[in-house]
Amino acid sequence: MGKAAVILAAGMGTRMKSVTPKVLHKIAGKPILGHVIAAARGAGATKIVVVTSPDGQAVRDYAAKEGADAVIQEQQLGTGHAANCAASALKDFAGVVAVTYGDMPLLTLKTFEASYEAQKTAGMAIVAFEAKDPSAYGRVILDRDGMLDRIVEFKDANDRERAVTLCNAGLLAADAKLFFKWAANLKNDNAQKEYYLTDIPLLARADRVACAVARTDEEEVMGVNSRAELAQAEAAMQRRLRNAALASGVGMTAPETVYFSYDTVLESDVLVEPFVVFAPGVTVRSGAQIKAFSHLESAEVGQGALVGPYARLRPGAVIEEDVHIGNFVEVKKARIEKGAKANHLSYIGDARVGAGANIGAGTITCNYDGYSKFFTDIGANAFIGSNSSLVAPVSIGDGAYVASGSVITESVPEDALAFGRARQKTLPGKAKELRERRASAAKK
Ligand code: UD1
Ligand code: MG
Question: What pLDDT does 125 receive?
């Protein structure tokens, strides 16, 4: 049986006070909508349709990038109306469709799976949760068999219904053909004059299709409507990612200070010191240590490497096995080969540093002339003396030695010693003479 998902994202999200559409704000480095798409896909949905508002071009572009289709809901007439806008995109689809909201980044693939599973047994399913504070959620009323009797929206509920704490999460699964038949027949005779998705089970019952109620935790269905809720959802996601890393054998002394991205890969026995940020695209191999206050993005760190404290790995940094990258060293689009060391205060960009090479404190690859980027190639076991500028394009041969303070503009052959600095001149006694002359001049 095929699986599809419809994700509603036509809401305005005005409370974010942002020019960025709500569902494109990021949690753990990935847009909220991306988390929902990933969960649906993880549960087996092969066709995913995102419902957007007319001015939601950025959302449609993002959906396309994630391999999802997008449709437009011309007017915001309610969640049932929004879901029905996906009918044309799914007209050739046979199977189960799960309908949910695009602003619930913590929804897991397990909950999607649970809805698809429950649908199989009953014909249709919704997901519900026990709310600590049910406030404005739709209330889930069960029948004597524990199946769904009805969902009552808060604004339409009487006092007895409002006292119910089982709430509608906003994930519904049904046979696609039947779903769109019911969605087309929804009415808006309710307190909000909206076409409610939550009325679908009533129409299903008229066709003798029952509705099972799967359960989830309140945290999973947390919707993001404001910056404060975005920060709360981020905190919850970070807790999840930290716990998953710890469970997989990553060592962290202060996990609450380490920030992950949705795709961070840390192998077992990686040690992460406090206050480290993993932006998207990072892989760290077993036995490597990431020391305090380091920032890594789209970078790879090999087995046993030491990075930081205060290191910055930018996109394209590849740190091989047993490399040391120390404090205030920035590496961008550069491969640092096995056992090489850059321990202090360096910029290495658009470069290769050969195995066993030593990059002295203050070494800079001058890779940019204001127009183009140029490559620096440093051979195996080369030694770059402190405070050298390597003006790219330039190459330093294997085993070559660059004297401290050099400005290197011409390539240095293998095993050569290169000086790129003025020769020192020392004048004995001249300092004393200078002092006396200046002191007597100042008195006058
Ligand atoms: C909805 C549910 C409620 C549930 C709650 C959980 C309905 C009628 N009610 O209420 O039972 O407890 O979610 O959070 O479904 N949207 C559109 N087009 C529209 C209207 C909404 O795309 O015309 C999208 C919004 O962008 C949002 C989602 O649907 O992502 C939910 O809409 P919202 O207005 O927040 O529904 P609630 O009133 O919270
Ligand atoms: Mg809502």
Answer: 98
- Enter the DSSP assignment of 368: B
Q: How far is CA 141 from CA 99, 146, 215, in A?
A: 20, 9, 14
Minimum-distance ligand 1 atom for the alpha carbon of 104: 30
pLDDT at 444: 82
CA distance 323 to 18: 43
- Contact between residue 362 and residue 344 where contact means Cβ atoms under 8 Å apart: yes
**Which residues in 153-270 belong to E strands, given as ranges?**
166-175, 212-215, 251-252, 265-266
> Does the beta carbon of 105 lie inside 6 Å of ligand 1?
no
Q: What does R_g of the chain's alpha carbons equal in angstroms?
A: 31
Verify whether ligand 1 is closer than 6 Å to residue 75 (CB atom). Answer: no
Q: Which atom of ligand 1 is nearest to the CA of 199?
A: 8
User: Relative to the CA of 137, which ligand 1 atom is closest?
Assistant: 12
Report the pLDDT value the prediction gives residue 338, as an integer from 0 to 100. 98
Q: Is 391 in the pocket of ligand 1 (CB under 6 A)?
A: no
Burial 414-443 (b: 16+ CB within 10 A, else e): eeeebebeeeeeeeeeeeeeeeeeeeeeee
Helix/strand/coil for 163: coil
Between the CA of 79 and the centroid of ligand 1 the distance, in Å, is 5
User: Ligand 2 center to residue 54 CA distance, Å?
Assistant: 20
To the query of whether residue 81 is one of the catalytic residues in this protein, the response is: no
Separation of first and last alpha carbons in the chain:
100
pLDDT tens readout for residues 259-294 = 999 999 999 999 999 999 999 999 999 999 999 999
- Write out the residues surrounding ion ligand 2, Cβ under 5 A: 223
Question: Which residue has the least CA distance to atom 25 on ligand 1?
Answer: 11
Cα 218 off chain centre by: 22
pTM: 0.94
Other CB atoms within 10 Å distance of the CB of residue 345: 18
Q: What is the pLDDT of residue 29?
A: 98
Residue 319 in tokens: 């740190």
List of the chain residues with pLDDT < 50: none
C-beta 79 within 6 A of ligand 1: yes
Which tens digit of pLDDT belongs to each residue from 295-313?
Answer: 999 999 999 999 999 999 9
CA distance 196 to 221: 18
The ligand whose atoms approach the alpha carbon of 188 most closely is 1
